[in-house]
Design a protein that fits this description.
With about 260 residues, the chain is mostly beta strands. It is built from four helices and twelve strands, in the order βαββββαββββββαβα.
């Protein structure tokens, strides 16, 4: 097996990202997308589990997206960035609408073994165990389009807000990547029930499509306001869980989903 580290041995930059894709039901994805954002060609859920310095502090995290299009451009709608670096959460939400929330991630690669586990509010919601099978085919440079939502509900006292101080806008994140190295991973993704990260119930896995380790080359990134969404149509999507885009009630899990965290796996 060949290796292509990007820096000194032991440098955190050398950590690969674990990228997992699975297929879910098209109607499940459609139910999570606000009017104006359309399901993509494939009903795919994309998970990226990582340990990377942001900007120079190690950050463990998991990114959850679904294939989705906006204004005819194919991309990914981001449901959440679960990270363990609290200092980056609130400023990212305020400035760019990046849906970050606190999450604990255990992720490592030892020899060929790859292991990952993600926990939020005491619930383990994602587990992965696998083994690298060696270097994968080369990958050309590519562009990823990601859709975030920047919005601010109207100030309200004693009742639910019905308007906005800043109405919902799509944020377009255009990232261009190269690949320093890539390895295929044979493994098993397990989704566990969680009221805080309801992947298992709202995006159930029908087929695991792929898994690989990826050493990225960062070539370009642009974050811009792409356009407004219908404010009335968006209102049902305004209540979310934590800083994610998972639907909730006043920012907490829906009552019918809530269970005792102490009983979680």
């Amino acid at each position: 097996m060949s290796y292509s580290p990007q820096g000194p041995t032991g440098d955190i930059i050398n950590w690969p990202m674990l990228k997992i894709v699975y297929r879910t039901d098209p109607d499940k994805i459609a139910a999570l997308l606000p009017p104006g954002i359309e399901p993509g060609t494939n009903p795919h859920v994309n998970l990226t589990i990582y340990n990377f310095p942001v900007p120079d502090v190690p950050e463990y995290g998991i990114v959850t997206t679904v294939d989705a299009d906006y204004n005819g451009t194919a991309g990914e709608y981001t449901l959440g960035y679960g990270i363990d670096q609290e200092s980056a959460i609130f400023i990212s939400q305020e400035m760019n609408g990046q849906p970050k929330y606190p999450c604990e991630t255990h992720y490592y690669r030892m020899m060929n073994k790859v292991s990952a586990r993600c926990i939020h509010q005491g619930y383990t919601f994602v587990e992965f165990e696998g083994e690298s099978t060696g270097e994968a085919d080369p990958q050309d440079e590519w562009v990823q389009n990601e859709w975030w939502i920047k919005v601010s509900r109207a100030v309200s006292v004693g009742g639910p807000a019905t308007g906005y101080d800043f109405p919902p806008h799509v944020v377009h994140v255009m990232s261009k990547y190269g690949t320093a190295h890539r390895e295929k991973v044979n493994g098993t993704l397990l989704l566990r029930d969680s009221p805080w990260d309801p992947l298992a119930s709202k995006l159930p896995m029908r087929e695991q499509v792929s898994a690989h380790l990826w050493w990225p080359i960062f070539l370009d990134r642009q974050i811009t306001l792409a356009g407004p969404l219908d404010p009335d149509g968006f209102l049902p999507f305004a209540d979310t869980i934590s800083g994610s885009r998972w639907p909730g009630v006043n920012g907490a899990p829906a009552p019918e989903q809530a269970t005792d965290p102490a009983a979680a796996a």
